[in-house]
Amino acid sequence: MSTAAARPQRADAQRNREKLLVCAATALAHDGDVPLESIAEQAGVGIGTLYRHFPNRNALVEAAYRQEVQQLCDAAPALLTPDRSGVDALREWMGRFVRYAAAKRGMGAALRAAVGSDSPLFGETRGRIVDAIGVLLAAGQADGSVRPDVTAEDVMCAMSAVWMVPDGDSWAPQVRKLLDLVVDGLRFGAPASD
Prior knowledge:
The chain is 72% helix and 0% strand. It is mostly helical. The chain is elongated. It starts with a helix and ends in a 7-residue tail after the last helix.
């Protein structure tokens, strides 16, 4: 490892990297072919700064996707508060999942081009998402707000219906309705609902 690679980034460089990732995720969700110059401009940095952090488009796309997944998964334990049931925390997290799903739909082609559809990245990130669901599901099962016979894999499979909803103006409302049905199913037969 080179000395430069081992050295931590300056605070301003880290802020620029974060701005680039946020702008890239937003821009790619709307247009998978958005020019890198446009992303740099939206982040308020020059194209050279973008290339210092991400040597090519594929590196930026992958990093933006990884950050989206990380933020989604990191939110799970933070949603578990004493005043919120496990099922309510899971429903809140599912709302975040919808936003993640919308972003991934937009950047899907760019992401597949960047890493390939057979990349281990997809299995790795799916595993992280299932783990996040598991944290929330376990809390709901512990407090009696979620039925005991459901696994995180079951919830993930049910949530995968999000990918089958056709694009269009009704996508977000239809996806929210699907997730409400999933939550209703998780509550049905839970000890707290008896």
